[in-house]
Structure formats: structure tokens, C-alpha cells
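Reminder to self: keep the SMILES exactly as supplied, no canonicalising. Ligand is adenosine-5'-triphosphate.
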Amino acid sequence: MARIIVVTSGKGGVGKTTSSAAISTGLAKLGHKTVVIDFDIGLRNLDLIMGCERRVVYDFVNVINGDANLNQALIRDKRVEQLYILPASQTRDKDALTREGVEKIINDLSDMGFEYIICDSPAGIESGALMALYFADEAIVTTNPEVSSVRDSDRILGILSSKSRRAEQGKEPIKEHLLLTRYSPERVNRGDMLSVEDVQEILAIPLLGVIPESQAVLKASNAGEPVILDSESDAGLCYADTVARLLGEEREFRFLEEGKKGFFSRLFGS
Ligand SMILES: Nc1ncnc2c1ncn2[C@@H]1O[C@H](COP(=O)(O)OP(=O)(O)OP(=O)(O)O)[C@@H](O)[C@H]1O
Ligand SMILES: [Mg+2]
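C-alpha cells returned for the bound complex:
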């Protein structure tokens, strides 16, 4: 059975697609057969960030409608083996995704031997976002260290525990992970942003990763290369740590402090 993981947030523009691309690439790089699905119908950003926009022939909605099969629509990544992308449709019909259709695709992907199915959610808390999270086993709640983002993430946590399949069927709840993105220690110290501890205290879910605000992200998305492939970059390293933690490894958090002082030295007051 595949692990179905939704990358969600509520608030738009916080880094879901950047994170979906990086995390799926990281999992595949470690040998796990992974597919990343773009649920953002009408926008289609994921294939740009993954650098495969010119190779899109069929999309998610074509498969749901029976105009193409999964093998025709899946794009195999050229850099990383075991990595596949299912692009979003550019249709304006926001209701093009049906629950039965999405369920069939997820089951078929699982039968095809995918270990991880990463669902890149659209912003908001309406139908598209609900569809992206409905079948999830786990959720990566992507949050920026600012009040409006944290508030929307809190709303999404409520939805995960009430409107998902696991909730409706009374199963074990979705496993929730906090991913803080665009973190800037300088701005935290100036009092312009919430700290890691502030956000953790409000959302009270386990911390999976902290990704710094980084020029490398823009550079990577312009080049169509998920930032995790830039293994020299701060954001790339932090996404690699995030993937390792998702796989159960313990990793220290880095780039949480201005200058040299580490997270633990601050935590323990040394
Ligand atoms: N760690 C980071 N450092 C700097 N910029 C970042 C970082 N993460 C994301 N960004 C930038 O923030 C913007 C939004 O990122 P992204 O498209 O991944 O967000 P999203 O949550 O998927 O947005 P939407 O809700 O519209 O789908 C992009 O311009 C991206 O390059
Ligand atoms: Mg997006």
C-alpha cells in the first residue's frame, strides 16, 4: 500500500508546490518509487517547478474522464529514477475532479507499486483542497511564520480531522506534520515574524522541517529543478533533512539562528 501524503496549508503562496516538488524528488532519490500529483486544477505550477512543462500531453482530468490512461499521463522525471509527475489540467472547470475518479487513480497508482503518493494541494479550504486531502494518510501542513498563515493552517488541521476519509470512516487520524517554510531568523529577531517555538505552540503538531527563506528557491524554480537537487543550498539541505525525518530518521534542525548559534544551544540556554 502506498503512503498518501497531502501537502496542504489553507493560505496560498506559502510554499506547498515548492515543498511537494522537493520532497517527492528527495524520496525518489533515496530509491522510493514516488509520484507527485498536482491537484491545483487550472493553474498548473508543479510541472514548471519540476521542469517538465513541455512534456505534458495528458493530465489528471484526462485520466479521470477516461480520455487517457495513467501510463499515458504520468511523466517520468529525467533526472531522478523512480520519480513520476501527474500534471494538473488547465481546465477552468473546478469540479472536474470527482471523488470516485480520484480514488480510482490513487488505487491504481498504489497497485502500480508506488510507495509514496504526494498530493500538492491548491490554496484555500474549498473543493480542490478538500479533494487533495480527502484520501490522505499523512499531511504536511505547510506554514509561514506569520499570523495569517498559522491561522489558516489551524483551520486545515480542523478539516483534516473532520472531513477526510479517515475521519469519516472513524479510522486512525491523519498523521500531521508541521513544515515551516520561508523562515528568516533575522526577521524573527526583529520581531517581524513568529519563531519556530511560537508556531509550534499554537499548532501543537510535530515539527517535520524548517526551510529558510532562500534565494536558492527562486533560482531552482526558474531553472525547473527542485531545490533539493541543489545540495549546496541551505533550502536544499533542509529539505533533505525533512525527507529523512519523514522516513523516521532523527536530524538536528539547522539555519534557525542568525549567525552561528544553533537551535539546541538556544533551547537549552547555553
Ligand atoms: N524557502 C523559500 N524561500 C524563498 N522563496 C520561497 C520559499 N518557498 C517558496 N518560495 C516562493 O514563494 C512563492 C510561492 O511558492 P509556492 O508556489 O511553492 O507556494 P504554494 O503554496 O504552492 O502556492 P499556491 O497556494 O498558489 O499553490 C514562489 O515564488 C516560491 O518561489
Ligand atoms: Mg502551489
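Points to follow up:
The beta strands are 3-8, 34-38, 75-76, 83-86, 116-120, 138-143, 175-183, 207-212.
The pocket of magnesium ion (ligand 2) is lined by residues 16-17, 40, 45, 120 (CB under 6 Å).
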